[in-house]
Design goal:
- The chain is α/β, with parallel strands linked by helices.
- The protein has eleven helices and 14 strands.
- It has a ten-stranded mixed beta sheet, with helices on one face. Strands 1-2 form a two-stranded parallel ribbon. Strands 7-8 form a two-stranded antiparallel sheet.
- A hairpin with a 4-residue loop joins strand 5 and strand 6.
- Helix 7 packs parallel to helix 9.
- The longest helix is centred in the middle third of the chain and has 14 residues.
- The radius of gyration is 21 Å and the shape is globular.
- The structure holds S-adenosyl-L-homocysteine.
- S-adenosyl-L-homocysteine binds next to strand 10 and strand 12.
């Protein structure tokens, strides 16, 4: 059948609505959700507490999105996965084990339209948006097919989540469904390059953590590194963030990629502190992950990254230096191309 629905694209409510005209009770939808997200089945025939005729109906109406096809294991324990899509395109996700948590970094688009001047995904260009089921399957197949625990999900893989907002919102609804994966909203972070008019509506609807990629601390510098700044500049971004009401104790996370002799000076750090004034902020400094696409860009020496951190801390901005992980398998931030740059 050609018009089968990908069952992973449905929230529990939608699954109930879809089953109703087939004469099935809402309770069946809950059972199916448990099979999909508690037991992680890979076929309808495994749903053994459903009648044979219902299983046949499911088989007719729906399909299950194929799981991950390739795993790349880094020497530091990081795992990169490549999910092959039905149109032969691919996306990647990265599993990052830590003592206190296991984070899965997932993708929202195939490639990316924003063309940041340091990011390999930007070099791929925009190929297409991911569908809800393709986003959901990233998480499901790591948990069930590769049997890795996942406590946190970050939309920091390929693509710009706020340019595929409806699909990302729906995937989040699937992740937090109590009858399914039952993730906490505060265990999910969405990272944006700064699609300013979408930040507030997104936050109001999703209630998850928000990270913003900054990298440049002046318009001149940010226009260069992140061309989206030519549309939504730093002042627009900062004043919008100051206006958004957020609960006491909560913060916006900022990602700043530091590149040697490009944007790693102490002066730049002071500029950044000024930009962030009045915004409840936590900064993650990401020492540049080198790659063959931008051979002129280098990682700064650690002392330089620390000096940058010190200045932000002196300005009372909590700042962490992100560990560079998974570089040996091109799984680190900004290194995901999913094979689209090969050959
Ligand atoms: N489009 C969204 C989601 C991607 S997050 C966003 O930009 O926020 C990916 C993060 O990796 C971004 O913060 C980006 O700035 C960072 N990044 C990109 N290329 C990098 C590289 N080569 N080294 C380190 N970080 C990089």
């Amino acid at each position: 059948m050609t018009n089968q629905i990908p069952i992973l694209s449905l929230t529990l409510e939608e699954l109930k609505e879809t089953l109703k005209p087939m004469g099935e009770s809402t309770y069946r939808a809950e059972q199916i959700y448990e099979w999909l997200y508690r037991h992680g089945v890979s076929s309808f025939s495994e749903m053994t507490n459903l009648s044979e005729s219902l299983r046949a109906k499911l088989q007719d109406h729906f399909f299950l999105t194929p799981p991950v096809c390739e795993v790349f294991e880094s020497s530091d324990g990081t795992r990169k996965y490549r999910l092959k899509l039905q149109d032969e395109k691919s996306v990647e996700m990265v599993w990052l084990p830590e003592e206190s948590r296991n984070t899965l970094c997932i993708s929202s688009q195939v490639g990316c339209a924003l063309a940041c001047a340091f990011c390999v995904t930007g070099k791929v260009g925009f190929l297409r948006n991911l569908n809800v089921d393709e986003i959901v399957q990233q998480l499901r197949s790591v948990i069930f097919d590769d049997q890795r625990p996942v406590s946190n999900v970050v939309f920091m893989g390929m693509g710009e989540p706020l340019l595929n907002m409806e699909a990302v919102l729906k995937a989040i609804r699937v992740f937090i469904e109590p009858k399914g994966l039952a993730m906490g909203k505060r265990k999910i972070t969405v990272s944006t390059a700064g699609i300013v008019p979408k930040i507030r509506p997104f936050l109001e609807r999703a209630g998850v953590k928000m990270a913003i990629s900054l990298t440049g601390a002046s318009n001149a510098s940010r226009d260069h590194w992140m061309p989206i700044n030519q549309k939504y500049n730093l002042e627009d971004l900062a004043s919008e963030l100051r206006r958004i009401p957020i609960k006491k104790g909560r913060v916006f996370f900022f990602e700043v990629v530091l590149m040697k002799d490009e944007n790693d000076s102490e002066e730049e750090a002071r500029r950044l502190a000024k930009v962030l004034k009045g915004i409840p902020a936590r900064v993650n400094l990401i020492p540049y992950n080198e790659n063959g696409e931008f051979p002129h860009l280098k990682r700064p020496p650690m002392e330089r990254v620390q000096a940058f951190q010190d200045i932000l801390m002196k300005n009372k901005i909590r700042t962490l230096i992100r560990k560079n992980r998974g570089e040996d398998v091109m799984a680190a931030c900004g290194q995901l191309a999913a094979g689209h740059l090969e050959k």
